[in-house]
Automatic annotation (TrEMBL):
<feature type="binding site">
    <location>
        <position position="97"/>
    </location>
    <ligand>
        <name>substrate</name>
    </ligand>
</feature>
<dbReference type="GO" id="GO:0005829">
    <property type="term" value="C:cytosol"/>
</dbReference>
<comment type="pathway">
    <text>Amino-acid biosynthesis; L-leucine biosynthesis; L-leucine from 3-methyl-2-oxobutanoate: step 3/4.</text>
</comment>
<feature type="binding site">
    <location>
        <position position="253"/>
    </location>
    <ligand>
        <name>Mg(2+)</name>
    </ligand>
</feature>
<feature type="binding site">
    <location>
        <begin position="288"/>
        <end position="300"/>
    </location>
    <ligand>
        <name>NAD(+)</name>
    </ligand>
</feature>
<dbReference type="GO" id="GO:0000287">
    <property type="term" value="F:magnesium ion binding"/>
</dbReference>
<dbReference type="GO" id="GO:0003862">
    <property type="term" value="F:3-isopropylmalate dehydrogenase activity"/>
</dbReference>
<dbReference type="InterPro" id="IPR024084">
    <property type="entry name" value="IsoPropMal-DH-like_dom"/>
</dbReference>
<keyword id="KW-0100">Branched-chain amino acid biosynthesis</keyword>
<keyword id="KW-0028">Amino-acid biosynthesis</keyword>
<keyword id="KW-0479">Metal-binding</keyword>
<keyword id="KW-0460">Magnesium</keyword>
<dbReference type="InterPro" id="IPR004429">
    <property type="entry name" value="Isopropylmalate_DH"/>
</dbReference>
<comment type="subunit">
    <text>Homodimer.</text>
</comment>
<dbReference type="GO" id="GO:0051287">
    <property type="term" value="F:NAD binding"/>
</dbReference>
<feature type="binding site">
    <location>
        <begin position="77"/>
        <end position="90"/>
    </location>
    <ligand>
        <name>NAD(+)</name>
    </ligand>
</feature>
<comment type="function">
    <text>Catalyzes the oxidation of 3-carboxy-2-hydroxy-4-methylpentanoate (3-isopropylmalate) to 3-carboxy-4-methyl-2-oxopentanoate. The product decarboxylates to 4-methyl-2 oxopentanoate.</text>
</comment>
Length: 368
């Protein structure tokens, strides 16, 4: 059988640096575990714009559609802020999500014990935290029509449209329930049914699917503003949070910060199963391109390495190897190894981006 295929789109800013560390892990799996990937690489975001005048070429889009999984670094940077909206780096990312139809975005927010003191909240509030946000990723206000800036009388009006069909809600709800079955059997569905019709429909559809097909799952509904408050107040009340595209964008940043560092959080964006049974999939860190620290060896590669671990779990049926990588990271953190973003009151051993990758590889070696 052919090796599983992976397309790496490192992107901008710290993207290429953190991706270099993932490549070490991929190399390690090939050498030590006989798990070989066919890896190809291409450009996305500002890097693609610089080379081709667009943030994602049709050729790259076609490659992304053909591989078993895409691994993305980050896109964007101040250099591109003044570009036309249609060619901004972010449009490359949004095109990948939309055309691959990656409707379920899984964003875990997990607090590593060694980092519990890094949170802006108290240790007891966050220690042991393990939340999974399931964000709808290809519909809602990010894509709804009409959209644009129009002229009305003697002034302009900016319009975006929140739009959800029953089937768009249903498929992401099923993703969340399936995931909940493998976790704590608990889902909190989040919308603003008090002010938005799309929220009323969301609530109805999610409840109906739960009642018909997932009676074992405890489902509660929460307004998005309350959810933001509850996340900061008692985050451990949550297990799986299911929500729409825009609320998911906001709440996942909030949940991320509970864990102490944005440099630690991975994500998976999953679509419908392909002919080989694997879901269409793209994996990326939650953090951005961090242009202010790019090229200085300061970036934390852990979020991207954990994103690759998610790929092993959700695309390649290699959950044991994913767990091995997660344990190696836990070990390195417990040993006090720290990139710049993780240097805190407890001191620790400062390392560069590449140093962190080397320590993780050493911990993987030690795990054999
Ligand atoms: C995210 C980001 C993106 C989003 C941007 C870069 C378009 O904030 O993945 O959360 O808003 O979805
Ligand atoms: Mg975001």
């Amino acid at each position: 059988m052919a090796n599983p295929s992976l397309l790496i789109l490192a992107g901008d800013g710290i993207g290429p640096e953190v991706m270099a560390e993932v490549k070490k892990i991929i190399g390690w799996l090939g050498d030590k575990r006989g798990l070989v990937f066919d890896v190809s690489e291409d450009l996305v975001g500002g890097a693609a714009y610089d080379a081709h005048g667009v943030p994602l070429t049709d050729e790259t889009m076609a490659k992304a559609q053909a591989v078993d999984a895409v691994l993305l670094g980050a896109v964007g940077g101040p250099k591109y802020d003044t570009l036309d909206f249609a060619v901004k780096p972010e449009r490359g990312l949004l095109r990948l999500r939309k055309e691959m139809d990656l409707y379920a975005n899984l964003r875990p927010a997990q607090c590593f014990d060694a980092l519990a003191d890094f949170s802006s909240l108290k240790r007891d509030v966050v220690a042991g935290l393990d939340i999974m946000i399931v964000r709808e990723l290809t519909s809602g206000v990010y894509f709804g029509e009409p959209r644009g800036i129009f002229t009305e009388g003697n002034e302009r009006v900016g319009i975006n449209t929140q739009r959800y069909t029953e089937s768009q809600i249903a498929r992401v709800a099923r993703s969340a329930f399936e995931l909940a079955k493998r976790r704590g059997n608990k889902v909190t569905s989040v919308e603003k049914a008090n002010v938005m019709e799309s929220g009323i429909l969301w609530r109805e559809v999610v409840q109906k699917i739960r009642d018909e097909d997932y009676p074992e799952i405890a489902l509660n509904h929460m307004y998005a503003d309350n959810c933001a408050m509850q996340l900061v107040r008692t985050p451990k009340q949550f297990d799986v949070i299911l929500t729409d595209n825009l609320f998911g964008d906001i709440l996942s940043d909030c949940a991320a910060m509970l864990t102490g560092s944005l440099g630690m959080l991975p994500s998976a964006s999953l679509g419908a199963p392909m002919a080989n049974g694997r879901p269409k999939a793209m994996y990326e860190p939650v953090h951005g391109s961090a242009p202010d620290i790019a090229g200085q060896g300061k970036a934390n590669p852990i979020a991207t390495i954990l994103s690759f671990a998610m790929a092993l779990r959700y695309s390649f049926d290699q959950g044991d190897e994913a767990t091995r990588i997660e344990a190696a990271i836990e070990k390195v953190l417990a040993d006090g190894i720290r990139t710049a973003d993780l240097m805190g009151p407890d001191g620790g051993v400062p390392v560069t981006t590449s140093g962190m990758g080397d320590h993780i590889v050493a911990a993987l070696d030690a795990s054999l």
